[in-house]
Amino acid sequence: MDLIKTLEAQHLKPELPEMNVGDTVRVTVRVKEGSRERNQAYEGTIIAKKHGGIRETITVRRVSYNVGCEKVFPVHSPTIVSVETVRRGKVRRAKLYYLRDRVGKRAKVKERI
Fold it and tell me: Looking at CB atoms within 10 Å, which of 56, 59, 67, 94 has the fewest?
């Protein structure tokens, strides 16, 4: 067990910001297209955090052209360039799956001051 923990500790990203469910984040992902590489930003609200350690994932939801889109990002993946918190959200739940059914202003999360 200790061998697995030491191997996982080597690959953890130390510079991650504090992010919680309800926060709006900008995730920059390294995208490879053929022989070229570029960085692409994806900004949305964190609706779920799962697992822990090297397996930690966040589910980010955004609405683009009136269509909801969700992506699951492994936080410690080498394809993730950076994660920055745009605004903090005030929520009282661990999972915000109810936002899927809401549209417009009702789908917003209040800002934590």
Answer: 67
